[in-house]
Amino acid sequence: MFNPRRLTLARHRRGLSKKALSAAVGITSRAQTAYEAGEYPPADDVLARIAAFLDFPVAFFLGDDLEEPDPKGASFRSMKRMTAAQQHSALAAGTLALELSKWIDGKFRLPAPDLPDLSGETPEAAAAILRQEWGLGELSVRNMVHLLEVKGVRVFSLVENTREIDAFSLWNEQKPFVFLNTIKSAVRSRFDAAHELAHLVLHSHGPVNGRDAEREADIFAASFLMPRSTVLAVMPSAPTLTHIRNLKDKWLVSVAALARRVYDIGIISEWHYRTLCIQISERGWRTTEPGDAIPETSRVWEKVLSMLRQEGVTKDQIAQELAIPPSEIDKLVWGLVTMGLSSPGGPVYSSARRATGLTLHENYNLPVSK
Predict the structure, then answer these.
(1) Which of the four pLDDT bands, split at 50, 70 and 90, describes residue 112?
(2) CA-CA distance, 22 to 30, in Å (whole number)?
(3) Cα separation, 345 vs 68, whole angstroms
(4) What pTM does this model have?
(5) What is the mean pLDDT of the chain?
(6) What percent of the chain has pLDDT over 70?
(7) Which of 97, 265, 355, 364 is the least crowded, having the fewest Cβ atoms under 10 Å away?
(8) Are 369 and 108 in contact (CB under 8 A)?
(9) DSSP reduced 3-state for 167
(10) Cα 237 to Cα 160: distance, rounded to the nearest angstrom
(11) Residue 255: which of 219, 228, 279 has the closest Cα?
(12) Rounded to an integer, what distance in angstroms lies between the CA atom of residue 131 and that of residue 195?
């Protein structure tokens, strides 16, 4: 039976208005509105044209209601720069990710969530508490994606039509989800991951959007990635931009983020900080900067995809079971894996050697095929 909510979801995923979709497939705006309102279903030939234009299989529009993320419960950092269409597209990607996650849960046992509720703490205190509970001490977090995964966070990527969105996160059925813009530089993506971690532990019972919530998440991220004591121990009392640049690799953060942290903990004055900001802008380091870190990838996704391939399961088969385009699976893990699920006759896996030399089994609760 035709499901009008799925039509709305597919349209949102493509970032289209009702008017734009109706014009593209040759139907009236009134008919398009009626389809999505559930007044009556489209004829088979019309549905076929809609499905082809949106690049979704016809079967997608015939399924049950999907669980869609609550916009009020999803954190978005760039509300001013983000259009309604971009937000709808990102949330639609989140809906598809929830479906893919459920499919994975039906076949594998992934790490259970281990995120405490720190909603009553200040951001700096919450970062210190979480570091202590997770046994990190004052050490630098060398890979945020790996850390989130081992603590039970489901990490997905954001790519097309979401360049204005840094990242967002949400809780669903007591599972935490983080969506990262993998087009961004590695150091900025790491900060985004820590920022979304803040929302998950600080704002799970309250508003996750708004200036105050975003500022708290930024403070938490900076404190979590750059502990106060380690910065104080190595940073000169009057650091130059060269000092900042040379020390950023210690915490794998951007020059701008480290300069802000140095200012926030009182090492430099506001005038000194503003001078550094001007120098950063003059060098074009707001967008790209020298010495960026290696992009972080997912160990969980690499292990899951590897095991699926060993069982003969292809990306197309997963997509067919979920009635979604195979390209949507690609987008949800793009930038997070060094391998992919190939279709029959396509390329096989090519797994890069992990920098640590450890397998997922040694570092994680291995996803076990059920």
Answers:
(1) very high
(2) 9
(3) 35
(4) 0.88
(5) 87
(6) 87
(7) 355
(8) yes
(9) strand
(10) 43
(11) 279
(12) 15
Which region among 44-53, 198-207, 335-344 has the lowest average model confidence (pLDDT)? Answer: 335-344
Residue matched to tokens 């977090």 = 141
Domains of the chain (ranges; CATH) run: 4-65 (1.10.260.40), 228-282 (no CATH), 299-369 (no CATH)
How many whole angstroms separate alpha carbon 39 and alpha carbon 30?
11
Pairwise CA distance, residues 126 & 116, whole Å: 10
CA atoms within 13 A on the CB side of 9: 23
Identify the bridge partners of residue 109 per DSSP, sorted by sequence position: 368
Task: Quick: pLDDT tens for 266-291.
Answer: 999 999 999 999 999 999 998 888 88
Q: Give the number of other CB atoms < 10 A from CB of residue 103.
A: 14
Please return the burial class of 272, using the count of CB atoms within 10 Å of its CB with bins 0-12, 13-18 and 19+. middle
What whole-number distance in Å separates Cα of residue 45 and Cα of residue 211? 48
Query: What digits encode the pLDDT tens for the residues 139-168?
Result: 899 999 999 999 999 999 987 555 667 788
